[in-house]
Amino acid sequence: MNAAYLIVALPITGALILLFGGRRIGDPLSGWLATIAAGGSFVGSVIVWASLLGRSGADRTVDKQIFTWIPVGSLHVDFALQLDPLSIAMVLFVTGVGSLIHLYSIGYMKGDRSYPRFFFLLNLFLFSMIVLVLADSYLFSFVGWEGVGFCSYGLVGFWFDRETAAVAAKKAFVTNRVGDFGFMVALFLMFGHFGSFSYSAVLGPLASGHSTLAGATATGIGLMLFLGAVGKSAQIPLYMWLPDAMEGPTPVSALIHAATMVTAGVYLVARSAPILHYSHAVLWVIAIVGATTALLAATIACAQNDIKRVLAYSTISQLGYMFLGEGSGDYTAGLFHMITHAFFKALLFLAAGSVIHALNDEQDMKKMGGLRKYLPITFPTFIIGYLALSGIPPFDGFWSKDAILDSAWHMSPALWAVGAVTAGLTAYYMSRQVALVWLGQARWTSDGHEGGGGHGGHGGGEPHESPWVMTAPLVILAFCATFGWLLNAPFGGLDFVNKWLAPVFPSTIDPAVHVGTGTKWVLGIAVTAICFLGLGLGLTAWRKVDRPALEPAVLVHGWYIDEAVSAAVSGPLTRMASAFSFMIDARVVDGAVNGLARFTSGTGRQLRRMQTGYVRNYALGIGIGTAVILAFVATRVGS
Fold first, then answer.
1. Percent of the chain residues past pLDDT 90, beyond the cut
2. 172 phi and psi, to 5 degrees?
């Protein structure tokens, strides 16, 4: 179990080495050092998983103390790790997928002038995410929560000399602060009620049934925790930052915005299941927000032309699916989809990066086409990720999506209908992407394109396959996207994820979904038919590039939501803030401070007149003072 220390120590050690010696180490050794640190962390995760596997379900929670952080009165917070089935499941795919993305980045970022800085931020991000999921308390987890926010700011704005990247980084940072406000309020409410932030003290008694929680308290804490999750996992109304975050290098998109950071909110909701169990109102809010976000983002993805923005809106949509599962009370289904999504979405982002690399940083799908002949490894791996995301059997997305939709049907047929329509739209917009990028005639020139990226590209000529450090992760992720569903197959006793997470989500918290076998078959066939319909429509309709009727302006502009928010922030909200600044800050706050300063200065000037420098004046003052004291004493004695 001491391998848990290596999980945390290796990435931060790699980050510190690159921080102070990255320039000397240079390119590509900086990348290999960071990749080895990430790979070692994954090996440590496997060792801890194997150790827990040999224990019974009740004994699969182990605390590893690091040091005492806050010993103040009744508040006692440790830097400690909680190793249990949920945290280890999270850290396994975080470090595993993260290691592959590190390896991919060695080739993708080759020649970048800030190569060591990129891998420093990548290792620091991995360390922060590990702290977030392995922490033994909400407060310690919040440290990792803020760490991934900081690293996201640095990585999204990595090419900060481009204004769009700098603006996207600020947008991500500010939007996430709104969610963090909710998380902090939840911490205050939690300490006021439980007197602790520890998972064992807060969640343990609730999960075991040894204590209960009033509905109002559970609703307050649950809603604030979910607000934090909404910000980090890009749900309505705080989703606008994630599409703009595609300004960062493509490995950043794969690591932060597909496989790890955006899943932090899903993890937070799952970890807080014992609290949410006492508030059905919060569960309904989570399910409705998740379903609405999934549908909204899917519609926007249908009309995007940037290869990465399509995948970005797809990520928002799939995160909505995860929250739909958790809000329906099936936390295991939401987490299973999170794991499979990490496989196929990381695969799709990295494959998209390979395409961008081959076309010298071109990202407009309307300027691609016919690439299947030139990228013989990237093409089939992309197709596997495409089929998995589209919910086509037998790939990963089919199984995890259906588990969520069964739970949604149990919650409400209306939620199931929204999820089913979203599944069809997903198959449609991904088929559109495949048709524009891989099929049809080539729409790029033989001398290459001039792009705005910063990693070099292929430098002209025909597109060609990426080096092995970039294609090897694609092959591994494609294998996982094909067979990863066997981790939780709904037959033959292969539901390993359900069994593994059973101690974390007992039947009192995560009851079995009561949907008959026949109904499940009907629902599954119906949704699969919708997915095949979307797939066929997408491939057929986009044989031609110009389809303006299928790209209405309202979808191209994302229902004008982002523009409306920007106009509100830069218009009336800015004027309101300026008015408040003038009335409150300038008049009240500054007025009070400046008024006190003027009073003090004026009093000092008046008192200074008493300091004449003449001894006779001071003697007179002493005499008057003595007379006053004697008079006061005489009056007191007489009484």
1. 70
2. -65, -40
In angstroms, the CA 343 to CA 180 distance is 27
pLDDT tens sequence across 26-39? 889 999 999 999 99
pLDDT above 90: residue 145: yes
- Between 519 and 576, whose confidence is greater? 519
Q: Which amino acid is at 537?
A: L
Q: What is the pLDDT of residues 213-256, one digit of tens each?
A: 888 999 999 999 999 999 999 999 999 999 999 999 999 999 88
Q: Compute the chain's Rg from CA coordinates.
A: 29
* Nearest residue to 234 (alpha-carbon basis) of 246, 242, 226: 242
Q: Which residue spans within 112-170 are E strands per DSSP? A: none
**In terms of Cα–Cα distance, which of 630, 102, 97, 593 is closest to 341?**
97
- Computed from CA positions of residues 83, 87, 92, 94, in that sequence, does the dihedral angle turn out positive or negative? negative
For 554, the token pair is 């309202």
pLDDT band for position 455 (cuts 50, 70, 90): very low
DSSP for 361-372, please give it: T--BGGG---GG
How many whole angstroms separate alpha carbon 546 and alpha carbon 299?
Answer: 19
Is residue 315 packed enough to be buried (19+ CB in 10 Å), middle (13-18) or exposed (0-12)? buried
- Can you spell out the DSSP letters for 499-519? HHHTTTS-TTTSPPP---HHH
Check residues 616 and 638 and name the one with the higher pLDDT: 616
What local confidence, expressed as pLDDT, does residue 454 receive?
A: 42
Answer yes or no: are the C-beta atoms of 368 and 378 closer than 8 Å. Answer: no
Answer for the pair 471, 382: CB distance below 8 angstroms, yes or no.
no
Q: Give 240's contacts (C-beta < 8 A, 6+ positions apart).
A: 171, 175, 561, 562, 565
Q: Is 409 helix (H, G, I), strand (E, B) or coil?
A: helix
State residue 569 phi and psi, 5-degree precision: -70, -45
Rounded CA-CA distance 252/349 in Å is: 9
Q: What is the DSSP letter of 443?
A: -
How many Å apart are CA 587 and CA 239, to the nearest integer?
Answer: 37
Burial 586-621 (b: 16+ CB within 10 A, else e): eeeeeeeeeeeeeeeeeeeeeeeeeeeeeeeeeeee
Q: Which residues pair with 423 in a beta bridge?
A: none
Per the document, the length of the chain is 639
Instruction: Compute the distance between CA of residue 274 and CA of residue 269 in angstroms, rounded to an integer.
Output: 10
- Distance between CA atoms of residues 263 and 254, nearest Å: 12
Q: Would you give the distance in Å from CA 84 to the centre of its chain?
A: 21
* Residue keyed to tokens 């005499």: 623
Report how far Cα 259 is from the mean position of its chain's Cα atoms.
9
pLDDT interval class at 460 (50, 70, 90): low
- The strand pairing partners of 67, in sequence order, are 79
Q: Would the pLDDT of 620 be above 80?
A: yes
Is the distance from CB of 209 to CB of 508 less than 8 angstroms? yes
pLDDT (mean) for 274-299: 95
Query: Please, is 627 exposed, middle or buried when counting C-beta atoms within 10 Å of its C-beta (0-12, 13-18, 19+)?
Result: exposed
